């Protein structure tokens, strides 16, 4: 039997709408592992944001920051940080527009201003136990920053897209957009990992629901969109499963033939 690997997004995929892990999902992931399949996480989150989930599911292989920081069996495999000079310039430009910025590395995150309601509104939805990062405007100095969060409303990122070409921008909240190295994606991260491990693309599966999952589901041999996924995500998927809260993961794994 050809070896197979399954990648799972977190928010809206492994975790339900209340950021809880459904019992059926936990059981399904454990069954995959028992059958000898490789199980990995592919998320836009930073590693420190999903350590408890990794521990609960016994997963130590993951793609984080939408492909910029990859860990294989607990060891760092790949790193792709943001360009520091470009990030400094973006921060200065954002200050003129009163748009806050949060910097993230693999260990933590810091804000360039003391408080902003848009930061609190969006960060609180992640249910990390914190609602606003600590103020440290120079956090990006002497550190590798893999992702920044730019706090602006829909459409306000357009000037940044035109001015700072070394970055890509993916909206994840009405008040916040991810800032990533240009060309970086979960798909690129998966490509790095499967090339290292020797998997054929037809034996690679991925589950997702968000706009940052489009490249991933398009790239793998078997892309599965959650029932709660954006329409654009469903359009590129090979399969559409049920809502995350309706045993979506377990159903999807049966749909693709990995579980009976």
UniProtKB/TrEMBL annotation:
InterPro entries: Cof, HAD-like_sf, HAD-SF_hydro_IIB, HAD_sf
CDD domains with a match to the protein in the record: HAD_HPP (cd07517)
One Pfam family it belongs to: Hydrolase_3
MF (Gene Ontology): magnesium ion binding; phosphatase activity
GO terms under cellular component: cytosol
PANTHER family for the chain: PHOSPHATASE YKRA-RELATED, PHOSPHOSERINE PHOSPHATASE
Name by which UniProt lists this protein: Phosphatase
